[in-house]
Each structure stands twice: as structure tokens, then as C-alpha cells.
Amino acid sequence: MNPVLKSSRLVIFDLDGTLYEGTDHFDYYANHLKQNVPQSQQLDFWRDYTAMKDGHHPVQIGKGYDVKRDFILTIDPMTISVQSVQTWDGSYVPAEEWETLYSDPVSFDFETIIAVGDGWWYPFVTAKHYGVEDCYASYVATKEYMVTDEFELTPLPGLREGLIELKATKEIVLVTNSDREDVQRLLHELHLHDVFNHIITSAKKPTRTTDIFKEVVHQYEVDMSQVVSVGDNFMNEIAQALTLGMQGIYIHPHRASEVAHDHLTVIRSVVELFKN
């Protein structure tokens, strides 16, 4: 088990992109949204969405997206302030054209200013760029697909066993932006429905991350230094944990981090936490 986990008393996990790595339901969502785009632009829609997943597009997890202005915002994860602004094609907007537009810190309302927190937001942001007004119907259709026999998530090898071992000596909590119905469905697919001590859904990270972390720490009566936050979005799960004095374990496939910090560990996959 990872040494950081061994020394902790409370571990807070993210869900999407952290406890599973499948993207089939995101692809379904994107394909459903694509049908609302003019046929002449559908190929471009899919090309942009695929580029996001492959890490070759300005829109990436941890960025912000201004729906009205079609701007992509690079955010300082420690202060939630805008550091640079790009257009959809990746060109940088001069600072004098945007510095008065965004407050410090940025306020994400998930309608006009989007925090790209996980893979669910790639199809949504792409659809908004191509002029799709209503994304909710496609979201509902995706949720319906996720209860069919066609949908299947492959549990990560050793994850359930590792979490159960961890739970024997620690409190483990799940904090996710997904709604309760989706979370219950995903946890059953992953065979993790009976693992967590406490589950917080519709968390509205990063806007409420700090408040939620403080509430959980108070509930379990532990010191901030005894808490670990594990997630794949630095802004949503890691930066605010570090600011509060917690440990952060950042999941990133390339072992890269926006910030160097004494309390930060970077891994490629959550299953690395449970290897001897």
C-alpha cells in the first residue's frame, strides 16, 4: 500500500476518471449530441471530441470553458484564477482583451462558465461550441443506455480488494460531481457499491470542494494532515486539498503535475496505490 495512505486516517476519492477508466458512455453521449449538429459539421465535431480525449485539443480536464465567448481558460489550480485564454483553434488571446472579463477567482456556474472536471464535459463543451442548445436530452439518453445490457464497465484489477483493505483501518469517502442515480449505477458496475463509508454526490467541484472537505474532516474528527484526497483533476480534488494542509494524490497518465508540492504524489492509475 502507498505510504501516504498508510499514514492517513481519512481518504477522499473522486469517481469519474479515478475509480474507472472506461469512456464508452462518454462516447455514446458525444455521438448522441453530434446528431444535433449540422451534418456538414459532424465530422469536425467528432474530430474535436476525439482530440480532447487524446490530449491534443486546448480543452482538457482542469481547464475552464466560457460558453458565450467560446473561450478556453487555463486556470491556476491553487488560486482558481485565469492565467491565459485561448480560442477554439488554440490561438492565445492577448491579456488586455480578457483580463477584465474574469474575476479572481473564477466563479463556475456550470452553465455559462464550465469547469471541465471529467470526461462528461468533453461532449458537452464540444456540443456548445457547435451551437447545440439543449444537451440534457442527450444526457438522459446516455443514462438510459447505461442501464442496458450493452453498457459495461470493466473494474480495475485489484481495486475492490485494495479499497476493502484500506477501509479496514481508514475511513474512505467518495466525493463526486455525478448525481446519485449515476453514482449508484456506476458503483454497481464496478462492484464498489458496498465499499465507501460515506458518499457525497452532485458535489459541484471545484466551487464547493473546500467546503465539502472541511465538512467531512469535521464529521470524522481528524486533522487535515491525516487526510488524503485522490483524484484525476488537479483543480477539483488536489489544489484545494494541498491548500488546506491535506495530502494530495494526483492521477495523471503522464506523471506530470502543474505544481510541485511536498504533500503531492503523482501516479498513473489508482491501482498503483495498492501495489506492494
CATH homologous superfamily descriptor of the largest domain: HAD superfamily/HAD-like
Largest sheet: 6 strands, parallel
Discrete helix count: 9
Quickly give the CATH architecture of the largest domain: 3-Layer(aba) Sandwich
**Rg over C-alpha atoms, rounded to the nearest angstrom:** 19 Å
Might you state the CATH topology name of the largest domain?
Rossmann fold
Q: What would you call the structural class?
A: alpha/beta
Overall CATH class of the largest domain: Alpha Beta
Distance between the termini: 6 Å
Poorly predicted runs of 5 or more residues: none
| SSE series | HEHHEEEEHHHEHEHEHEE
Average pLDDT metric:
93
Kindly state the percentage of residues in helix.
Answer: 25-40%
Work out the number of β strands. 10
GO molecular function, one term: hydrolase activity
Protein name: Hydrolase
Organism: Halalkalibacterium halodurans (Bacillus halodurans)
Pfam families: Hydrolase
Helix and strand topology:
Layout: H1 3-6, E1 10-13, H2 24-34, H3 39-54, E2 64-66, E3 71-76, E4 81-86, E5 113-115, H4 121-129, H5 136-145, H6 159-167, E6 171-175, H7 180-189, E7 198-200, H8 209-220, E8 227-231, H9 234-243, E9 247-251, E10 264-267
Parallel strand pairs: 1-6, 1-8, 6-7, 8-9, 9-10
Antiparallel strand pairs: 2-3, 2-5, 3-4
